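ARCHIVE CARD
Drawer: 12
Card no.: 0347
Subject: one protein chain, sequence and derived structure
Cross-reference: see card 0346
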Amino acid sequence: VLPYMENIPRAIVEKEALEGVLAMTPREQWEDPPEDSVLYTLKVYAETYGEGKATKMPWWDWLYMRFELPDANEVSAEKIKLMEDDAKIQRRMMEGKIPLYVPILGVPIYTGMTLDWKPEAELFAGDQIRSPISDSRFAKNFIGNTAFYREGLENWQRGLEIGMAHGYFLVGPFTTLGPLRNTPEAATVGLLSACAVIGIVSVGGLLFGATVKPRAFDKDGATAGSGFTEIINWHAVGGLGGAGFCHLLLTLF
C-alpha cells in the first residue's frame, strides 16, 4: 500500500509491528505522517536503509531505533483497541460528554454513563457546566433546603441555624483527636477549641461583610452588607450554643 514501505528490512520493523503502527495512525496520514509519530520515524528509516540504499547503519541510528520503534508486543491487538477506545473518549469529551467513572476498591470502574458538561450558550462559561452534582434534582433540592438558600427565613434564623450546626460538630474532632483526648478534661478542651474556631470564623465573616459588602441578604433600603453581617452575628450565637449543647451531651452521657 505504501511505496516507501515495500522494501523495508525486517531488522528495522517486523510485519506485525508495522501493521500495528498503521492501525494506530489515521489512514489519511499514511502517505505524509506527522513528524512526531512513529510512522514518520519508520518512513525515514525506510527511505534511508534497505535494498538499493544504505546497508550499514551508524550506532547512534541503531540505538535510536531500538528505543523509539515498537516491537510486535508493544502494538498488540489489545493495546490498539485501548488506543482506539481512548481516541473515541477524547472525541466524545470534545463534544461535551465526559465518561463517568466510580472508584471501587481504588479502581475506577466505567459506569457506561456520561456527564454532559457542554453548555448551550457560552462554550467555556464555567457557571453553565452541568453535572449530577450541580444539575440533578436531588442536588438542587438538597442545596435549596439548606439554611443559607432556603426561602422564607429571616437573616437571624439563617445565622442561628448554620451556627448551631457548625458549633455542634466542631467539638467532636477536638475532643476525640486532641492531645488531651484521654484525660477527664477532653470535652472541656473540645468546647474551648470549638468556641475559638467560631470566634475566628465570626471575625473573618465580619471583615468580609465590612469590606466586600455582599447585598444578597440586604433588605430594601438597608445599608450594603448589613444582612450578611446580621447572619454572621447570629452565626456566632448559634455556634456557641451548639458547642455548649454538644459539651453538655458529652459530659452527661
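Annotation on reverse: The beta strands are 97-104, 107-116. The longest strand covers residues 107-116.
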